[in-house]
Sequence to fold (349 residues):
Amino acid sequence: MVDALLMLAKIAREKGDSESCISYCRKAMVLGAPPPVWFEMMMGAHMDVGKAADILAELEGQLEGVTLPPDAEYILGTARMQLRQFQRAKDHFLRVVHFMPNHTQAYFGLFMASQRLGQAQEAASFQKTFAQLESNDRQRMMENNRKEEELSGLDLVRDSTLKTLMAAGQIFQGKQSHKEAADCYQKAIELEPRTLSICLAYEASLVASKRLQAGVKFFEQRQVYHPENILNDYMLGRLETRRGNISMASEHYKRVIAMRPEWAAGYRAHAELNMLHNHRLEQARGYAAKALALEESPEHYYLLGVACVKLKDFQSATSAMEKAVRLRPEDARFRNLLNQLKQQKTPLP
Fold:
């Protein structure tokens, strides 16, 4: 019954029938559906009809202690902006970018919220990130439009099937049905084996359902028939890392680096593996430095900074963290580690 109500709510929202969507969500809520399942649709529908304040007041108590998906946090942030609750809006947007660092509109929300709060330096940083992401989104949209125009026949069916599988996986995840979500993502990988985001969604569902061995078996089979696809080794490295198999994970990452030496993610993953187990730390620093050389980012400066801390090279660590904070001043991890270093305490990242 709950599934049917949520499907009806989704259809109503897509048709622009916000009132019916709200009604179906309320019924699902009464029948005991967990908040992550219905909240995003219900909140969005209320915002469509200008009733954000009403629904926030009604649901405030029910959301305490509930972990919401990033898209739901984004909707909450947008609603708080409409109600001029700028600090609370900013908190929601920060949670979004913590889990989805390339969420363009969340960075725009952070820019607007910081500006309204009089935080000029942070606002400028968020605006810069938003502008870069928005430019990337525009280019990606143009490329997708070009590809859609070229699709025909079997390609069109394949593309439609892929979108359906991904949507189904997300619905199952929202319902905490992680095994079913993993099955959907696995089929999606078989259709589109070279898209990292699909592989990572599959990994998340495997972790949630405690089925890491099933993922290892899947990617090992794919590796036999498609040894040229580096994502097979990359995902095997990630899964073996989670299982605590350091040497096996290391071998997979070495193959990734050998096959695609220009890809920063391979070096980053190997550095993280070594640091996770305090293993070959000089090598870890080298991998972190290589990832940074290939792709300058605050995350890679942070990675290098942590490697230097573990090697007790606090001067180099401070230099790396200053650059990380300069690029992303809003990230508390970067600021906290830099403050510890400047206070001449031995941090424990």
Q: What stands out?
A: The longest helix spans residues 120-150.
